[in-house]
């Protein structure tokens, strides 16, 4: 099975994610959440970041993820050597960021955090067996604050 066809089967929390090689760009709130989620699903995880929050960096080995700390102004050798099936970028990376362009040019599958979340949305189901409706917050700045505000208002 090719990497692309394998990714096509990953449309559920209950799919077989074991052995899928996932590179995560960024190690802030979203990057860590992505790494934690795919590691829990059984994927092999490499997180690449220029600046690592000490708390998140300390937790990566606990969840079974590796860390590459270094420049992301081009395609890092660590990413190429890891040969990911998919690269998941944190929302802080602009579509025009050099590493995003390099990932695309190299032919790696590229997802955002929302793509991953949509694929595993069936982890928690409503009483009727369907996934919950979504409220989406995305962008570069203010996501965490806006999300917390929305959660406070809705829950």
From TrEMBL:
One of its GO terms (molecular function) is UDP-N-acetylmuramoylalanine-D-glutamate ligase activity. Its EC number is 6.3.2.9. GO terms for biological process: cell division; regulation of cell shape. It holds the Pfam family MurD-like_N. It comes from the Bacteria. GO terms for cellular component: cytoplasm. The keyword Nucleotide-binding applies. Keywords: ATP-binding, Ligase, Nucleotide-binding. InterPro entries: Mur-like_cat_sf (IPR036565), MurD (IPR005762). The keyword RNA-binding does not apply. This is UDP-N-acetylmuramoyl-L-alanine--D-glutamate ligase.
């Amino acid at each position: 099975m090719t990497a692309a066809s394998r990714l096509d089967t990953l449309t559920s929390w209950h799919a077989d994610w074991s052995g899928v090689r996932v590179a995560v760009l960024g190690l802030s709130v979203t990057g860590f959440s992505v790494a934690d989620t795919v590691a829990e699903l059984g994927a092999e995880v490499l997180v690449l970041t220029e600046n690592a929050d000490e708390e998140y960096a300390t937790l990566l080995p606990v969840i079974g993820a590796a860390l590459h700390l270094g420049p992301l102004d081009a395609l890092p050798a660590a990413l190429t050597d890891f040969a990911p099936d998919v690269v998941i970028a944190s929302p802080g990376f602009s579509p025009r960021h050099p590493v995003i362009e390099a990932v695309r040019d190299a032919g790696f599958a590229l997802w955002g955090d929302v793509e991953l979340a949509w694929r595993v949305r069936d982890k928690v189901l409503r009483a009727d067996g369907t996934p919950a409706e979504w409220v989406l917050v995305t962008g570069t700045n203010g996501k965490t604050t806006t999300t917390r505000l929305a959660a406070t208002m809705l829950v």
